[in-house]
């Protein structure tokens, strides 16, 4: 019975409190993570120099060009929009797009009927005035005879003074009529000449040698030249093309007339066309708030490879270096002292010597986007470090998080 009481008492006693173990697992995980991060930070920093890896490139010989690039459009240097100076129906067009024409060739014809009738009417009026002039001159000759007779009779007192005065006045009237007819003849002649010119304008001739590159009117179309000169077609000289390159405001001071230029086209990226700058237009174009200046470049096109409205990638050569010592641009660091950059040709490179980086001052020459010419301070074949400077990385690295324990 006592044994049962003891069992009952032990069953009624409160259970022992167990100590939680999750906190210790969390603390162990934080300690391991901190130790791993510290090890990585140590090995990746300057302390782990033995484990550091450098990206290098050799200093090599090659050719380098320093240039300003721009986009351009190819146009014919010389072209003429051929129009009509008279109104009327376009009766005939003798050429098509792509035809080669010579100066003076007949290109098109306007219906000449209206202008032919004007010329005929002017000519008839002119003939009538000339006939009147001949009649008036004959009458003037008769009036001179009558005036002479009247003067003689008056001198012998056989005639009256009134008759003599009337004869003299008739002569003057006849002379005035002749002068008026001569003026009318000049006026009619001028009208005839104008109508003859308009009749000639009904035939449209080529003003220059070239190629028909476009047409703006079709046969049967009525053209009205009273307000504007209608364009019938365009003739262009395709033997000489002109590149209109748009150069940015920041680069335009470097571009000079006569500068050597080469360009490529979208369809012929491997073909270089060389030319020279002929003109820099002073008035810019503003495109999306960007100021662009047009630079004109003439280029021969005897092979007819260049066509109107082609796009061109233009390179203005600022300098060239043949057989120069070149290194990647990423390997060169400009020299700065006191917050100011030194002369443009002074810089430093890191050279890998016996597996260790060595900072070396150099003098640079021309540069492109990817390469820089080294004039002094480096030899061919030496390997320069192109990866970022660990010291600079360390200076910019965020501080290590504090240890928890």
Automatic annotation (TrEMBL):
Keyword Plastid carried by entry: no
InterPro entries (UniProt xref): Beta-barrel_RND_2, MacA_alpha-hairpin_sf, MdtA-like_BSH, MdtA-like_C, MdtA-like_HH, RND_pump_MFP
Keyword Lipid metabolism part of the UniProt annotation: no
Keywords for the protein's UniProt record, in alphabetical order: Coiled coil, Membrane, Transmembrane, Transmembrane helix, Transport
Domain CusB-like beta-barrel: 243-314
Coiled-coil segments on the chain, per record: 171-198
Endpoints of the signal sequence: none
Pfam family, one: Beta-barrel_RND_2
Family the UniProt entry places it in: Belongs to the membrane fusion protein (MFP) (TC 8.A.1) family.
Protein's UniProt name: Macrolide-specific efflux system membrane fusion protein
């Amino acid at each position: 019975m006592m044994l049962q009481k003891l069992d009952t008492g032990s069953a009624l006693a409160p259970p022992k409190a167990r100590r939680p173990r999750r906190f210790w697992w969390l603390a162990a995980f934080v300690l391991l993570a901190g130790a791993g991060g510290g090890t990585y930070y140590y090995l990746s920093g300057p302390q782990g120099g033995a484990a550091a890896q450098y990206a290098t490139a050799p200093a090599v010989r090659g050719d380098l060009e320093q240039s300003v690039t721009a986009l351009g459009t190819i146009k014919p240097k010389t072209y003429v929009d051929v129009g009509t100076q008279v109104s009327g129906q376009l009766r005939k067009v003798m050429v098509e797009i792509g035809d080669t024409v010579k100066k003076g060739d007949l290109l098109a014809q306007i219906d000449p009927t209206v202008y032919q009738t004007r010329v005929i009417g002017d000519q008839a009026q002119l003939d009538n005035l000339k006939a009147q002039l001949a009649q008036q001159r004959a009458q003037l000759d008769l009036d001179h005879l009558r005036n002479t007779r009247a003067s003689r009779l008056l001198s012998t007192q056989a005639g009256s003074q009134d008759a003599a005065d009337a004869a003299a006045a008739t002569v003057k009237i006849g002379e005035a009529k002749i002068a008026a007819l001569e003026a009318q003849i000049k006026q009619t002649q001028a009208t005839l000449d104008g109508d003859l010119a308009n009749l000639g304008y009904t035939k449209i001739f080529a003003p220059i040698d070239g190629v028909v590159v476009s047409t703006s009117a079709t046969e049967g179309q009525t053209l009205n030249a009273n307000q504007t000169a209608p364009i019938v077609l365009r003739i262009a000289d395709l033997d000489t093309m002109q590149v209109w390159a748009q150069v940015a405001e920041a680069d335009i001071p470097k571009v000079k007339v006569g500068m050597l230029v080469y360009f490529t086209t979208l369809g012929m990226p491997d073909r270089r066309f060389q030319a020279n700058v002929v003109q820099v237009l002073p008035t810019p174009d503003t495109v999306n708030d960007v100021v662009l200046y047009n630079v004109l470049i003439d280029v021969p096109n005897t092979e007819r490879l260049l066509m109107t409205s082609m796009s061109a990638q233009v390179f203005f050569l600022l300098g060239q270096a043949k057989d120069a010592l070149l290194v990647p641009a990423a390997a060169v660091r400009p020299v700065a002292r006191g917050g100011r950059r030194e002369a443009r040709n002074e810089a430093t490179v890191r050279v890998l010597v016996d597996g260790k980086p060595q900072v070396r001052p150099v003098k640079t020459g021309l540069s492109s986007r990817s390469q820089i010419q080294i004039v002094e301070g480096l030899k061919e074949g030496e390997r320069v470090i192109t990866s970022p400077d660990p010291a600079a990385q360390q200076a910019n690295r965020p501080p290590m998080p504090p240890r928890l324990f």
